[in-house]
Amino acid sequence: MDTINNYHQIITKILGEYANLPYAHGNLERKFIVGEDHKNYLLLTVGYLKGKRVHGCVVHLEIINEKIWIHEDGLEDGIALDLVMAGIPKNKIVLGFHPPEVRHLTEFAVN
Q1: Which domains are seen in the chain, by residue range?
Q2: Which helix (H) or strand (E) holds 16?
Q3: I need a labelling partner for 64 at 20 to 30 A (CA). Which of 31, 48, 79, 89 fits?
Q4: Count of CB atoms within 10 A of residue 49's CB?
Q5: pLDDT digit string (tens) for 46-93?
């Protein structure tokens, strides 16, 4: 199985599970969006909370040059650990939400 298809299956499983978790309060729901090319993945929160509109990105992943870039990670424990537990090596995950000059301080890929 090629790398992108493998990543697609892993990401779809993990984010699909998060998308199915219900919210405890408010009229909120999660939307899980996969790009046509299977290289972009979004988990959004949409709806209303206390009469105010909510629309925000919880997670944004992108596959670039056979690495998974985490552009946004609003999960409590972080999506990176889920990816590692699913078998993705740390050197294939880029914490894109960190500035380039500090990425070398993490256990993950720099770019």
Answers
A1: 3-105 (3.30.310.110)
A2: helix 3-19
A3: 31
A4: 13
A5: 999 999 999 999 999 999 999 999 999 999 999 999 999 999 999 999
